[in-house]
Write a structure and sequence with these properties.
The chain is an alpha/beta fold and 241 residues long.
Length: 241
């Protein structure tokens, strides 16, 4: 088997002496979509921050593509990973300018044909020159996703990317995620409260509960034949989240 893209070993993350994440081992495979589910406050967003190199773990080792020691991770490695947040943060510029912003920070330009292609996929071609602050929540999240994807990351981290969006926008975003994963082999880690979304998109699903990794397995097994009582209860909707 190929070496996992991420290897987490004996990871702990504490804030003010309180441990909020305690994972003995977690491997994330290249090219997979891994869904992370669990109650609010379970440590899901903290895990994403570690995977995005925004924080270093209090204890343990995070290995990315065979390299340990995030403090020494070169910028070229860090750029292989990008993140889409639940609430998109868009500039007071046009939709087209927002798409090109990330590449511009790197000194690169977004080719017009690439920008046009993304606007078509987003269903926003007619709004290219409109201020991004006039978009609906769903439109804004589509722009935020495309802005991340034009960077051509190897890893896309998603923190509740479709929370509170209508089914139309959820469908567009899920379609784009599925296509990028299938066509480019992009690795994705998806934090979601929507267990149906996890079932639709993820090859594997993991349950975080009180900072601990309770269970991780292929998605059909996770939902249809879980081995842990907490997972079975969560799938049945018996845990408040």
């Amino acid at each position: 088997m190929n070496q996992p893209l991420y290897q987490l070993e004996n990871i702990q993350q504490s804030y003010n002496g309180r441990c909020v994440l305690n994972i003995a081992q977690l491997n994330i495979q290249r090219g997979e979509i891994l869904a992370i589910v669990g109650p609010s406050g379970a440590g899901k967003s903290t895990l994403l921050r570690l995977l995005n190199f925004l924080e270093q773990p209090t204890q343990g080792q995070l290995i990315f593509d065979g390299q340990a020691g995030m403090a020494d991770l070169p910028l070229t490695q860090r750029r292989r990973v990008t993140m889409v947040f639940q609430r998109p943060i868009l500039l007071r510029r046009s939709v087209a300018a927002n798409l090109a912003y990330g590449l511009g920070l790197r000194g690169d330009k977004l080719p017009l044909d690439v920008a046009s292609g993304w606007l078509q996929r987003l269903g926003l071609a007619a709004l290219a020159r409109q201020s991004a602050h006039k978009l609906s929540a769903g439109e804004a999240q589509r722009v935020s996703l495309a802005r991340a994807l034009v960077m051509q990351p190897e890893v896309l981290l998603l923190d509740e990317p479709t929370a509170n969006l209508d089914p139309y926008n959820v469908g567009i975003i899920e379609t784009i995620l599925r296509e990028e994963n299938e066509n480019l082999g992009m690795t994705m880690v998806l934090v979601t409260h929507n267990i149906f979304q996890a079932q639709r998109l993820a090859q594997r699903t993991a349950l975080l509960w009180d900072g601990s990794l309770i269970e991780i397995s292929d998605t059909p097994t996770f939902f249809n034949a879980p081995t842990q009582a907490e997972t079975a209860a969560f799938v049945r909707g018996e845990l408040v989240y």
